[in-house]
Amino acid sequence: MTGLSTTKAGITTPDYGLGHTLRLGASRVAYETRVYFRQTDTLFFTFLFPVIMLTIFSVAFQGMGNVGADPDGSGGISQAAAYLPGMIAAGILLSGVQNLGVDIATERSDGTLKRLGGTPLPVLSYFFGKMGQVFVTSVLQIGLLLLVARFAFGVTLPADGASWMTFAWVYVLGIATSAVLGIAISRLPRSGKSATAVIIPPVLILQFISGVYLQFSLLPDWLQNVAGLFPLKWIGQGMRAVFLPESFAAVEPGGVWNLGSVAVALLIWLVAGLVICRLTFRWIRKDS
Amino acid sequence: MTTAEPAVSVSDLTKTYGAFTALKGVTFEIEHGETFALLGPNGAGKSTTIEILEGYRDRSGGEARVLGVDPQHGGLSWKARLGIVLQSSGESGNVTVREQLTQFARLYPNPRSVDETITAVGLEQKANVRIKNLSGGQRRRVDVALGVIGRPELLFLDEPTTGFDPEARRQFWGLIRDLKKEGTTILLTTHYLDEAAQLSDRAAVVAGGQLVAIGPVGTLGSTEARVPIVRWSENGSVREQRTLDPGRTVAELFDRLGEPAGLEVVRPSLEDIYLDLVGAYEKKQQEEVLA
């Protein structure tokens, strides 16, 4: 045996710089998105859920007349229009926290992460792939919600650029925070089987206390304050500012949309989520 | 040989989990290009050893070097030189064989062709089938394919052929021989002793966290354990004799009996020797407990 035959000629020193990490991340986005749409359970409980809930609530409460109508029944907005901002906020939460929380916990328990941890895949590329998947699927989800609201229920969407600018930053901040928190929360379930049982209940409770299914202004102050500790309330508030008429600001806390607080609250959660991910994410539980 | 350091070197490796000692001072080296089999009963410490070398577990004591690097601190460029086939895999498998291999090939600087790899593991007919719809043995072949797609210098195979039918196992042996020809260093654990005998240059037997034997497969075990057996029928009963000179014994038999009925010359298989070694170790343990 000659020493040379064992080392392969032509192996170039691979580049593990940022460019490589991003390129791999981009290829993971395509891969992760493809896998997402092949899972019928996530398709139903995450992707289509807000559309289904919007449809149910809009149809069920149609008979109650418009929201915010004058005493004579004129004016106000339809039930569908009133529910739309909350459903968009719920979609953002589901696509990030619920989707990634369950997905990554399952991957940790079924050996996917262990296998990836033995390859030269940078952790950042993996995160990039997951966040890209969240972004792509949630854009499609919200697009579908807007189409259904507009064409099935005749909701009038904002026509001015300023509203859509607000929508853009609330959305980007919201979905980034939600995705990062999904990665962070995936540490909690001890097994893939328990993942949905651990993650779905808190996500569901948050939806009830954050103005998704129940009108936020009708909740008692203390419950509003509890909800204010979590990001969903702020995403919902931002979306109401975009989609509801200006007059509806009157029932918000302080009588204004308070977009500054929306930005601050979401940024705090985003940074906290990033720190938790950085500190707690491991490919495997070492020495378990 | 060059003076280059071995592909794998382990000295006095120990691993404890709380009060339990999984490895008690294991020492061995694997040369570049060598195929080395780690044999032993379940719970003997095979997987613990291999997972320490793969970087999945931290050792409690001793030294370990894998391709010149301490596996506890192996970076991405180190991982790019390894191929790992884990003992179990249970991914949901919502991707096809080809999609999965294409994705993994991207991770390595100098990967093999996806189609060639699919052919090498005999999954041409299943290339476009989702992994979750494959049989257990077919999924195992996907694991092997994912382990070799990156053209590793060092390949870890932890019980790679579990669930294979005999034909698939033969095909797998062919693949391993091809990898050997390319110069790949291989560390194999297996419960199939014929597999170890077929593939490995050297083998080590682990029992109770210790190496009880190490050496070329043909020299493993005590000299007595490897003494051939001549077996024949005489007067209606089977006779056998252990002898270092089976040829002479057969010639004497021929002189005495003419053509002996049911003549066999048997060399104890690796399996016989292995069972001897493990049995001897367990007996010694029991004696120590009683003493």
UniProtKB/TrEMBL annotation, chain A:
Pfam families according to UniProt: ABC2_membrane_3 (PF12698)
Compartmental location: Membrane
MF GO annotations: ABC-type transporter activity
Membrane topology, from the record: Multi-pass membrane protein
Domain called ABC transmembrane type-2: residue spans: 41-287
BP-aspect Gene Ontology terms: response to antibiotic
Top-level taxon of origin: Bacteria
Keyword Transmembrane in annotation: yes
Predominant localisation class: membrane
Any one of the GO CC terms: ATP-binding cassette (ABC) transporter complex
Key words of the record: Antibiotic resistance, Membrane, Transmembrane, Transmembrane helix
Transmembrane segments: 43-61, 81-102, 123-152, 164-185, 197-216, 256-281
Entries under PANTHER family matching the protein: DOXORUBICIN RESISTANCE ABC TRANSPORTER PERMEASE PROTEIN DRRC-RELATED (PTHR43027)
Protein's name according to its UniProt entry: ABC transporter
Organism: Subtercola boreus
From TrEMBL, chain B:
Domain ABC transporter, first and last residues per copy: 8-233
Protein location: Cell membrane
Keyword NAD: no
InterPro entries (UniProt xref): AAA+_ATPase, ABC_transporter-like_ATP-bd, ABC_transporter-like_CS, ABC_transporter_ATP-binding, P-loop_NTPase
GO MF annotations, alphabetized: ATP binding; ATP hydrolysis activity
Bilayer topology term: Peripheral membrane protein
CDD domains assigned: ABC_DR_subfamily_A
Keyword Transport found: yes
Signal peptide, first to last residue: none
Keywords recorded for this protein, A-Z: Antibiotic resistance, ATP-binding, Nucleotide-binding, Transport
Example GO biological process: response to antibiotic
Record-linked PROSITE patterns: ABC_TRANSPORTER_1 (PS00211), ABC_TRANSPORTER_2 (PS50893)
GO CC entries: plasma membrane
Protein name: ABC transporter
